[in-house]
Amino acid sequence: QNPEQSHSCLILLSLICGVFIAMRINSAAVTSLAFMASAGAARAFGASVSRVASRRTTLSRRIPLAMVSTTAGAETAESTSSPSSNPMLDQDGLPRFSSIEPSQLPPAVTELLEKLEADFSAMESKLSEDDGTSYDEVLPAVERLQEPLGYVWGVAGHLNGVKNGDELREAYEKNQPGVVQAMTKFSQSRPLYDALKGIESSWEDATGKDVEFEEGQRRRAVSNSLRSMTLGGVGLEGEEKEKFNDMRMRLAELATKFGNHVLDATKAFSLTIEDAADVEGVPASAKAMWAQSHAMHLKSEDPEADVPEPDAEKGPWRVTLDGPSYIAALSHLPNRSQRETVYRASVSRASDLGDEDKNNVPLIYEILSIKKDMSTMLGFDNFAEQSLAGKMAPTVEAVTELTDLVAEKAIPAAKKELAEITDLARSVGGDDYAEDSLEKLQPWDVTFWSERLKEKKFDLTEEELRPYFALPAVLDGMFGLVKRIFNIEVTAADGEAEVWNDDVRFFKVNDVETGKHIASFYLDPYSRPADKRGGAWMDVCLGKSEACNRDVPVAYLTCNGSPPVGDDTPSLMTFREVETLFHEFGHGLQHMLTTASVGDVAGINGVEWDAVELPSQFMENWCYDKPTVYGFAKHYETGEPLPEDMFEKLKEQKTYGAGMMSCRQLYFGQMDMELHSSFDPKKEGEEDESIFDVQRRVAARYIPHSPPLPEDRFLCTFNHIFGGGYAAGYYSYKWAEVMSADAFGAFEDVGLDDEEKVKEVGMRFRDTVLSLGGGVEPMEVFRRFRGREPSPEALLRHNGLA
Length: 802
Known about the structure:
The protein has 27 helices and seven strands. The protein has about 800 residues and is mostly helical. Helix 2 (about 105-130) packs antiparallel against helix 3. The two termini are about 30 Å apart.
């Protein structure tokens, strides 16, 4: 029911900070089931992405400040990373997480802001005086200037997501305005803009020459930076510029507040169950999770109390709105009224129906209003147009066209799926579900009965699969896959890096052929409702940058999976959690295996928003590949492999519920686009649409079979578009899926059982999609890998619609 609780991810990139910078052209998107309706749709897709190339040099988009952490930690003469009593200023290597305290953030930011302001003023003076400034004197210098502050703010943004607390929030919010102001100076620097224009013009004089990757990535970085500065207000003057900057500052504040409200409202709810009859039939893993949650809650309330050991069979059981707990409740609680309580609590979070101090409704109106005003000042009709300026999709109409093409197939399929679910509920659910007492299934019924239908259809339950998906084994299997197809080796390096929680692990990535250490990553796998935001994401710790002498990129991979229950049992994952892990690792691979040396386009930096999901969605496909699955699917106690019939049923389940899932994502994406294009947030008369009217109108079009409740306030927790960077970009769920499915189709074409051919295609994927980063336009990257533009045929086949 909530994007945060789906198995799809977002690349967080510290977007919730709401701060934007001109020079770091990172991208982020989200993934989902999507498919094209016909071959005609494929032609429309190809036409759309090719048209956008012709205007790629004219505009840009807004970028979060925390993305500057992608080149943090360099060992340069201009760095402030000398040893210090403040660990945030010790930037010679990885963050010193075990030593970092929230109180250290303000003095670190103050010191670095003062130095940054002085250094950039000197640079502007030099640029104003010099004619014919070279590339090496501009963008690499900017990378080095921004690096120390980016390191600190990147760490703070990361901790705000995984170790949130009142003291950190206060320090973060207190320092955010100064950081926004400092980065605004970069995005609106006329000397810097003019220098970059001059560099671009000198390259245009050499048009027609073959451009090697080394120079091509520089050109992309300059072009991206100029677009970003255009959208950062570099062309504004006087009062208009001052107003624009005030609005930018306010947006940063609102985005942070929105996310905090969602987190606080999520933590505020719990449902304690004491009657064992109310958990009859619930999987043992869910009961153990809820019993452990109850015990941990009692301990947090009174650390000195003698709290009994959690008892999964006798309870009590504490259900929360945290992802794993919420999904288990909606899927398995037999008591309708309890499911209703949990569901209603979820869809009313952070709204006008709850605590006023956590109400996001006025924040949404203000966010939409500010974005509309800022876009108008930049010459756009609305914010959606501005957002699409740096994406593959050329227009709002093109996005709607794709959405409607998908809806044409998805809505009939969804209605059929819901009818089948309803028939099962009426036939075996008893009087509560009889037609004369229940006209249609309610939202809190659908997930429960959908799970029962799936169990009946495939004679396979989630609980039966869990013992075969122990996290340590899944990691080994995933690492075995990338060694097989990408020729890299991942090894545990726990203890070689400080971590922010005992559950966090650290790994190194080596190239098999050379033996060289090429990257590292942290893995934070489990849900922690008390201080960790929901969802799953990949974020950048350190990025590759020649300018900053940084050659070993480091990633954060964050999930909210099921934690271990008890001392002797590992985390037993749902299959959806396995897919999520593969998905996040795909993002990490694009960051870690880049060969681009320009920080602004290395790894995920500079990749168009609606293309960046290609490697992540691509990796999910391997969860249905037999050699890959049998590389990890072993019973955690006996070591026995997953029975063959269970694997076949698992594959058959792949397209189960595809219609309803697709409609759900269409609904989210088009609601996002409507709010940022046609909706006027300043019209507040009784006859004018409210944000919830828009929600209901879009729902009637894309989920007519399952309309939201009148009191549904989902928008108040839509962190992706109001607290993050996905505004007018949620459609990317669909756009990128075409490319990712077709990319996996290249492996299917050569035969997944042909190891030699699979390795050959895998290395080509590594040398293009995972290597080139934002240094080459995404359609060209795809052509280099596939030899042609994307086709929807593989996607149709993968979704059972061919």
